[in-house]
Amino acid sequence: MSVTPSIACIGIIGKHDNPLHISIFPPHQNTSAPSDAAHLEFSLLLNASLDIFEQRTTTTTTTTRVDQDLGMLQIVDERLSVWGWQTGTGVKFAIVVDMWGREGRRPSSSSTSGGMGLGGGGGGLRPAFKALQTAYIRLLQNPFHTPSAGPDGQHAAGGNQGGGRKSGEITSPKFVAEVRRIGEGWRPGMERV
Fold first, then answer.
1. How far is CA 82 from CA 52, 63, 68, 125, 135, in A?
2. Helix, strand, or coil here: 24?
3. Helices and strands (H and E) in the chain: how many
4. 64 burial type by CB count under 10 A (0-12 exposed, 13-18 middle, 19+ buried)
5. pLDDT tens profile 136-190
6. HSE of 26 in the Cβ direction (CA atoms, 13 Å)?
7. 12 DSSP β-pair partners
8. What are phi and psi of 139, to 5 degrees?
9. In sequence order, what DSSP letters do the residues of 44-94 get, joined into one string?
10. How far is the C-alpha of 146 from the C-alpha of 139, rounded, in Å?
């Protein structure tokens, strides 16, 4: 039986490197009882990728980039890899891909998909990143969404609606549901999520 890679985590990080939203997907997150350990693990993983975001964006500003796809940022281990996308306003989207899939079982060498659909600068994740960016733009266009203030007192995207765990965390139910739909619906080789 072939193992299909899946999204393990989606992170949205603000312009000032503040976490705006983190969604974790099975098997890393038990949907019936959220795990603070899994949230901490992926928060640290996303935080570790921020230096790579910065390095990639400073090295690519000398050349003209049509898209914001930064490709694979890092390989964590044989199972997880982090992929990145940055908006023109400096908001970062990170997707952690689990090569063992939703079942969480190590594939045999003959059953792995070999990263099918993920090569070529993350082209297989491009539809997921575009869907995330569209959801984020729709959130910002919502007249009832209030952006939070960033570290310098300036307003940064990521309002705190409904009392999130931290100031600046996006808690809009519609946005959270859309991120969950993207994370659960993505499969390698999809052209649209």
1. 10, 23, 15, 11, 20
2. strand
3. 5, 7
4. exposed
5. 999 999 998 887 645 544 444 444 444 444 567 898 999 999 999 999 999 998 8
6. 9
7. 21, 93
8. -60, -45
9. HHHHHTHHHHHHHHHHHTTS--SS-EEEEEEE-SSSEEEEEEE-TTS-EEE
10. 10
pTM: 0.81
Which class for 131: exposed (0-12), middle (13-18), buried (19 or more C-beta within 10 A)?
buried
DSSP H or E run through 177:
helix 173-185
Query: 């993350």: which residue's tokens?
Result: 122
How far apart are alpha carbons 74 and 95 in whole angstroms?
11
Contact 176, 162 (CB under 8 A): no
Cis peptide before 27 (omega within 30 of 0): yes
Q: Residues, the chain, total?
A: 193
- The answer to whether 4 and 113 have CB atoms below 8 angstroms apart is yes
* Kind and range of the H or E run holding 140: helix 126-141
CA distance 42 to 36: 10
